[in-house]
Amino acid sequence: MISADRLNESVDELAVFGGRKPAGSVMLKDLDAKAVRSCWNDYSSFVKVNPSAKQSAVVFQVYDVAKSQELESLGGESAYPHRQFGIVALVVAKYEDAHLDAAAGEFVDETLQVPTPKEGKNVYSNISRGGETLEELFGSAERVERLREIKKTWDSSNQFKGFASLL
Fold first, then answer.
1. Are 27 and 122 within 8 A, CB to CB?
2. Which of 5, 17, 18, 101 places its Cα 20 to 30 Å from the Cα of 67?
3. Cα–Cα–Cα angle for 131, 133, 135, nearest 5°?
4. Comparing C-alpha atoms, which of 142, 117, 132, 127 is closest to residue 93?
5. Which fold has domain 4-131?
């Protein structure tokens, strides 16, 4: 746990160029105390076995979604999906040694499974693990179709795709 006045220090090292940083996210409506404790235990176990990965992080970012939901109800449109989710759970393994790749990937995947709601996963697309469906990334089939139409006009060569090729 980090105090609010030192919160940004916790992620400074994640923004440094280089190193290995497999990451993933899931968007949540609520925080479950048991799930948060389980994520902490996963993190503690991972860095205990892999001390060179001590700068890894499990972060829960909490946002007020009232204004975005108000805009949605008024017919306001945005490319931002999942407006009803006010919490982003992020798991990042940070290390240098390529021999930790498998263990780090397992840590990220298993830790993200803990808070993921049973009714389905929604992902913040900028912190995708890969393998998510387009609907998990962008919100709904309608949004995916709309994005495809926009990309045909503005990114017909599909340069901006990350893990999600829309064309």
1. yes
2. 5
3. 155
4. 127
5. Vanillyl-alcohol Oxidase; Chain A, domain 3 (3.40.462)
Euclidean distance between CA atoms 79 and 97, whole angstroms = 37
In whole angstroms, give the CA distance from residue 122 to residue 84. 11
Six-digit token string for 129 = 């693990």
Which range, 10-14, 39-43, 159-163, is most confident? 39-43
Q: How far apart are the first and last CA of the chain?
A: 42
Q: 101-113 and 33-49 are packed helices; what angle lies between their axes, rounded to 10 degrees?
A: 170
Burial of 59 (0-12, 13-18, 19+ CB in 10 A): middle
DSSP assignment of 33-87, as one string?
A: HHHHHHHHHHHHHHHHH-GGGTT-EEEEEE---HHHHHHHHTT---S---TT--E
pLDDT digits (tens, 9 = 90+) for 9-34: 656 666 667 788 888 888 888 889 99
For the chain, what is the radius of gyration of the CA atoms?
17
Q: What are the boundaries of each domain within the chain? A: 4-131, 133-167
Tokens of 150: 């926009």
